[in-house]
Amino acid sequence: MTQAVVDRLKAQFEERVRETSDAFGDHELVVAVKDWVEVAQFMKDDGDLQMDHFIDLTAIDYPERESARFDVVLMLRSSVTGARIRMRTYVQDGEEPGTLSEIWSGANWAEREIWDMFGIKFDGHPDMRRILLYEEFVGHPLRKDYPIDKAQPLVPYREVDDTQKLPPFGIEEGQPFARIDWESRLAGGDNQVSPAIGVQQGQRRALSDSEAAQQIQARIAERMAKDE
Amino acid sequence: MGELKVIGGGGEVAVTTRLSDLLQWARKWSLFQYPFVTACCGMEFMATAAPRYDIARFGAEAPRFSPRQSDVLWIVGTISQRQGPVVRRIWEQMADPKWVIAFGTCASCGGFYDNYATIPGVDKVIPVDVYIPGCPPRPEAVLDALMLLQDKIQANDRKPIIVPPRLVPERAPGRTGEGHS
After folding, report:
1. In angstroms, rounded to a whole number, what is the distance separating the alpha carbons of residues B72 and B94?
2. Searching chain B, which residue's CA lies closest to the CA of residue A135?
3. pLDDT digits over B75-101, tens only?
């Protein structure tokens, strides 16, 4: 059924439908950024297609790709025919595809989320603001070049030096909650706590599994002895 | 309640203690809570508040949905960076004396979230008195935390503390019909 959608679009737009593909019966087509809105509008309005159900709009970042860094992907369904289709376009950094919020109002927030997470603006969008993060946030966190652990706190973190803070968690409290220090782990060490975080939080080194097992055994034995 | 001194006998008995002890005793048995519930730990919090576990036994059954009327702030769930100022403000609005319980791993240290969106432990923003480990914690752990907090209130102890695990005996009574040794 979705093949019919692709055929219809190919007949209408000819070579402006640049690529088509098919994965497990779900069809996909690729169009240029300049044709983005027009093809979408056609899919909504055409009597054969009637793509009236906007499922989702999202983006993917391929920083290594030189021609166009981002994919913007639109997922549609027709509640009349039951057909589903995916439309994709390749967007360069700074390029602005047209907004779909005039066609499906659900696209409004999806486009704001893409702006928030990837930094792709949509031309003609009525309210191009961040939707999940805050205005003070610098950068776009789902871009692959955003540092994975970089936080931008709105409230400055407390100085914890003056408090008699206990180490938050060790394995004997139930689970090893500490952040794992992968660098030292890979180098053969058993340090589970990232040094930077450990210093910041006053954390002690988490126990290795064997140490923890020993301690738990000892505590159970102690407890049993006391009960007797 | 601190040191109790019984005076007299027979028909008339008076008991003396220190005023501060009496105050702490009154405080620990009438904790009005402000549940700041943001995530899945909320289900466990509801389970604890429901009749089976019955936190009314500890005088902590009354939730206040205004921070100005509450004594204990429960941070139940993940706190995002965007919520940081909100949590901070709610804590500032509470009247002294006030206590904070970090419910679950996310509230305590950020849990498995280590990214742009999450505060790695609500103690980065407000001081915490009791940490409850668990993802989510069992209701028993929550009740342990409440009792721990009561002890700390009575002792006027503001040192942060973690709820310790309950040790499981190797053979629980009744399981094998033998009882545990």
Report:
1. 9
2. B82
3. 999 999 999 999 989 998 998 888 999
- Residues of chain A neighbouring B159 (CB-CB closer than 8 A): 164, 166
Give the number of other Cβ atoms within 10 Å of residue B10's Cβ: 5
Contacts of B85 in chain A (CB under 8 A): 154-155
Domain closes at, from A77, A95, A118? A118
Under DSSP, the state recorded for A24 is T
Lookup: tokens for B18: 């220190």
Pairing of strands B130-132, A17-23: unpaired
Q: What is the mean pLDDT of chain A?
A: 79
Query: In this predicted complex, what is the ipTM?
Result: 0.71
pTM of the model: 0.72
Tens of pLDDT, residue by residue over A117-157, are: 999 999 999 988 899 998 888 999 999 999 887 888 888 88
Q: What's the gap in Å between the CA of A43 and the closest CA on chain B?
A: 36
3-state secondary structure B72-128: EEEEECCCEHHHHHHHHHHHHHCCCCCEEEEEHHHHHHCCCCCCCCECCCHHHCCCC
- Can you give the CATH number for the domain in which B95 is found? 3.40.50.12280
Q: Which domain holds residue A97?
A: 2-118
Residues of chain A found within 8 Å of residue B120, distances taken between Cβ atoms: 151, 197, 201
Q: Is A166 exposed, middle or buried (0-12, 13-18, 19+ CB in 10 A)?
A: middle
- What is the rounded CA–CA span in Å between residue B46 and residue B53? 10
Give the Cα separation of B46 and B58 in Å (integer).
16
Nearest to A177 among B109, B161, B169 (CB): B109
Per the structure, the complete domain to which residue B127 belongs is given by 31-162
